[in-house]
Amino acid sequence: MTVNNGGKLSKEYFVSYIQLVMNARTCSVEEACRFVLEQFFKGNKHTFGDYSYGNFLSACKEIACFQR
């Protein structure tokens, strides 16, 4: 997936992306979030800036709450 480095990615974007990963890989929220961090962020939380990383964390928490 190509993403503009200058863009601020929303929580909704990450919720959709994480759910897509969960469905495609048939994995848990934790595994999907770990995968997104490694593959999408290249293991560096600053790749797309603090705003996008914060939204990523919020999305992981939101999805985890729904899974309980």
Topology, number of strands = 0
Main beta-sheet strand count, sense and barrel state: none
Q: How much helicity do the residues have?
A: 55-70%
Measured between the Cα atoms of the first and last residue, the distance is 29 Å
Unreliable stretches (pLDDT < 50, length at least 5) are none
* Class from secondary-structure proportions: mainly alpha
Q: Quaternary arrangement of the chains shown?
A: single chain
Strand content: under 5%
Average of the residue pLDDT scores: 91
Shape: globular
Q: How large is the count of helical segments? A: 3
If you compute it from the alpha carbons, what radius of gyration comes out, rounded to the nearest whole angstrom? 11 Å
SSE pattern:
HHH
What key phrases describe this protein's structure?
mainly alpha, 3 helices, globular, 68 residues
Question: What does this protein structure show overall?
Answer:
- The chain contains three helices and no strands.
- The chain is mainly alpha-helical and 68 residues long.
- The protein has a domain at 31-68.
- The N and C termini lie far apart (29 Å).
